[in-house]
Amino acid sequence: MSPAPEDRGLLRLTTCGSVDDGKSTLIGRLLFDTRSILVDTLSAIERTSQKRGLSAVDLSLLTDGLVAEREQGITIDVAYRYFSTGTRKFIIADAPGHEQYTRNMVTAASTADLAVILVDARKGVLPQTRRHSYIAKLMGIRHIVVAVNKMDLVAYDRAVFERITAEYRAFADAAGLRDVVFIPMSALDGDMVVDRGEAMPWYAGPTLLDVLHATPAMQGEAVDRPLRFPVQYVCRVHDAGLAENAVVDASRAGAGYRGFMGRVASGEVRPGDAVRVLPSGRETRVKSVELMGQALDRAVVQQSVTIVLDEEVDISRGDMIVRADGAPEATKQLDAMVCWLSETPLDRARKYVVRHTTRETKAAVASIEYRIDIHTAGETPATELRMNDIARVRFKLAQPVFADAYTACRATGAFIVIDESTNNTVGAGMVL
Fold it and tell me: Which residue range(s) make up the domain with 210?
């Protein structure tokens, strides 16, 4: 009996780059060649392709689900797709390439372990290619695959691939991108996506799927980091029978303990752990950890659970439970790299709202240290930020937040900036 294949866990990835580089087609090809498409779904896109007079199936239809996307032939919203190869599970976020929808790309990149940056072999490296690459770096994505797509339209010319590789590598060196893999491919025909094909015998490197299988996920690292548990909701947990659906609505609460619901942002928590509550600084111990009324031995990063403490402690939404010996410092100042997402420029005279984990506070812009020149990855002086600008900004906060550097913890190192007059998200920040 042959041994079961090794399960390498879940890998989250995003595709990004400039508009019409073939991102949706690439994802469709991955799903098609790994046999991850349901028969009825395949039949539906075959019919749609025939109605359009196409001789082959348009695989981009697997992700471009909005009517507006199919009408315009571009991706607008982020589309998530799941597939498995038997040895690994994947979640793909297809990010729009159009400059107007860069904010959606930020959303897609925020949870990704790897980014696939597509480059049209006919066009080379474009400004949006550089912008998405830099955002991927800011969002903590360590592994970059530069997929030089549409090689079939340049006769699979090796010189074209090498020219684009040299151009991108120069930008990557200036931007501080380290782990970069270059793959020539044709998403339309499938060369070097899942199967190697026969069109590019001069390329001896891995296929895209080979790289995806070999890339380590970041979730394991987050388990080893200090506990961060932002409180989202306070409920009532009865003392009798933790395993009997003990979590009940507060309106029905009788005698019992308060439970604190939220998602583990980093680290792990177990019954008996010594913890500290921020901002009060009160120290106590964990009485129990529960999921859907069931007592757990521990909860790890990305799990949504209820924590019950040994003592009654005054805790509300926006507070944070951390280990007693590993608490972040409370701060009323944030130095961060900010991607400005609004068509309305940043106004230094206005007040904004900063939302950090489950906590909100009013904020003012103290200074704009510099803006990133997306062409050179260099720093330039700036007095304002316009849509899609990336800059180092200092915020002064009305109330303290409990932030880590983004490189240490994505969840507690990230925040969004909200226009309090419209309630629109206008910026995304990564704490330095």
Answer: 10-217
